Amino acid sequence: MLPRIENYEDLYCEFRWRIPQRFNIGVAVSDAWAARDPGRVCLEHFSPDGAHLSLTYAEFAARSSAFAAGLAARGIRPGDRVAILLPQGFEAAIAHTAIYKLGAIALPLALLFGVEALAYRLRDAEAAAIVTNRFGYERVAAIRDDLSDLRLVVLAEAEELPGTVRFDRLISGEERFTAADTTPDDPALMIYTSGTTGPPKGALHGHRVLPGHLPGFQFHHHFLPQPGDRMWTPADWAWAGGLLNALLPSLFFGVPVVSSPAQKFDPHMAFRIMQDMDVRNAFIPPTALRLLRSVERPRERYRLNLRTIGSAGEALGRETYEWAKAALGIEVSEFYGQTECNIVMDDEGYFTFFGRDDDVITSSGYRIGPGEIEDCLVGHPDVQMAAAVGRPDPIRTEIVKAYVVLRPGVAAGEGTAADIREWVKNRLSMHEYPREIEFVDSLPLTTSGKVIRQLLRERTVAEGMASVAMGS
Ligand SMILES: CC(=O)SCCNC(=O)CCNC(=O)[C@H](O)C(C)(C)COP(=O)(O)OP(=O)(O)OC[C@H]1O[C@@H](n2cnc3c(N)ncnc32)[C@H](O)[C@@H]1OP(=O)(O)O
């Protein structure tokens, strides 16, 4: 925990890492609070019809222990990878916590992923189990024959589907479970990279990944926990941002987390969630803040009680920062990860984060490796060659732009482009599809036949600047 020192220099000098010798994320975010304050609310689910639900730490601890016992009874062992393909909600939080208590490894997967992205990650991680809903079940059913390690599919639905165990059945048994006595270095969480250099890799984190995030989290949320604090993020908890900058640290500090149904981001709905659920702290990526700007005079339209906003994933920019200060009365705390290395420090020691300077595309706060998109594009029957780059965009920082060489005889046109976009959305991911496609006769190649993305990036940046200059 951060010492409460308001002066940065003193705080910096006083700070020491204090990581306990034994630490289990699941115990820290549930059982520890259930013992101290069982009736305290830890999760609240927003429902558009006003029928919100809440869960206490005592219920959370009991259900996650029962889930851990249920997984163990079905042969899931410490060290096994257990995928979670669920929207924000009680089930996702319970599944995470149970997996940590069991000493297994949580593998969060985004709902936006298409079948190829899911198949790749599930196979590569040799996942033994997956916890999902009907939407995810259908995607997994299409690839299940190729997943020889997958022994268990847990379904968070009221219905029975073939080859699955219902979530509520799994937790209906034994509620006592002795959590694994883990060290901070025992594996807990596997998050896939975005594939900067080649295919995405499963980055394995020990239980210390949570304590490692706490000081930065507290710092950006002005010494959270404060009375009345309540956290919400529109980001899927499957991303490192949603999980490690919102869900888990808040639960650790006894701050209730608001969950909301997965849907395309709607600025008015976002304000309503923050109003109705009395959200005090939010993790809102820059793109979502820019989308919120479309709502005029938000504080006159919505009763907002925000105290802090953290933002990450892409550069926030001065305009959005100033807008949030004026329109929401909040100075957004921007933070960056260490791979986002295009950062400049001025004479006074202030850092300016300019975004990335490599092939990775930064769109809507997602880091997108071009390789996977290109692989997916060339799998399309009409595509001979393809290259993906980021095109600057005022709302989403960048959008994915694909340069595509079609096979001989295929007509270039909006119909073909729409078909290619759908192909990538369904196979790879809904957030990685090329919003813009340009058909070209050839691509610039090195002598060894690799696409020179740098040239295409420069071209697309120049086009972007020209269109801004022309006012389009
Ligand atoms: C340490 C760190 O990692 S820090 C930051 C990490 N990054 C993040 O957490 C990602 C942050 N970004 C986001 O959460 C989102 O992009 C937002 C909130 C900014 C914007 O959300 P959206 O506008 O809905 O777009 P998003 O990029 O998520 O979705 C891509 C597509 O999937 C579709 N989609 C999204 N959710 C759904 C859904 N539930 N059902 C159907 N379609 C959906 C969208 O329609 C969109 O396509 P479109 O723009 O052509 O309509």
TrEMBL record:
InterPro entries: AMP-bd_C, AMP-bd_C_sf, AMP-binding_CS, AMP-dep_synth/lig_dom, ANL_N_sf, Mitochondrial_ACSM
Domain AMP-dependent synthetase/ligase stretches: 32-350
GO biological process, one term: fatty acid biosynthetic process
Pfam families: AMP-binding, AMP-binding_C
Key words of the record: ATP-binding, Ligase, Metal-binding, Nucleotide-binding
Domain AMP-binding enzyme C-terminal: 372-450
The keyword ATP-binding is assigned to this record: yes
Annotated GO MF terms: ATP binding; CoA-ligase activity; fatty acid ligase activity; fatty-acyl-CoA synthase activity; metal ion binding
Protein family membership: Belongs to the ATP-dependent AMP-binding enzyme family.
Protein name per UniProt: Acetyl-coenzyme A synthetase
Upper classification of the organism: Bacteria, Pseudomonadati, Pseudomonadota, Alphaproteobacteria, Hyphomicrobiales
